[in-house]
Input
Amino acid sequence: MPRRTSTSLASKLASSFAGTVARRRREAGLTLEDLSRSSGVSRTMLSEVERGQKSPTIRVACQIAEGLGCTVSELLGEPAEAHVTILRRRDRNKFTDPSSGVERHVLSTSLAARSLEVVWYVIPAGRATGEFPPHRPGVVEHVTVVSGKVEVRIGQERLVLSAGDSATYPADVTHQFRALVRRKCEILLLIDSSALVR
Output
């Protein structure tokens, strides 16, 4: 299987994301103004994202997903659950924040149907993911630092985690991750929305 270039993959993801956002918004019977109110993203930005004219930051992508009541993985067009799935490293959906260089890699293609997202973040030295918006009450996140040293801000609380450390917390407050060392840091993040599906 030929390897896709990062440029073509990025274009594919931007196109897929834009089309999915527009489709889900229309299916929900929402106008751009409605989605702007529920997500906190300006109508202009939403329009540009839907037309594929602008690539959203990771924060904005999360806000749009929250406004639509779904996950970022679903907006990236992750396939439905299968009995056994294998996701090769070269085939991961990678979303790179244009402003910070933070990379978001989706590691699970089948868990979205169970309201779970497994995501790998690569945070450049000294950079931060930016502040993520609060998830809906009931959403829990679990983070494990794979390499480096990371500051985790959960609302007003500040945690410092080193490689191998983990934290689990309610994600219905603003939160962000910052690399505290002079090399890239990597974290594994599990976002669990299963309590909302009852």
Observations:
- Residues 1-10 have pLDDT under 50 and may be disordered.
- The helical segments are 6-27, 32-39, 43-50, 58-68, 72-75.
- Strands lie at 94-96, 103-106, 116-123, 140-147, 149-154, 157-162, 166-170, 175-179, 185-192.
- The domain at 6-75 is CATH 1.10.260.40 (434 Repressor (Amino-terminal Domain)).
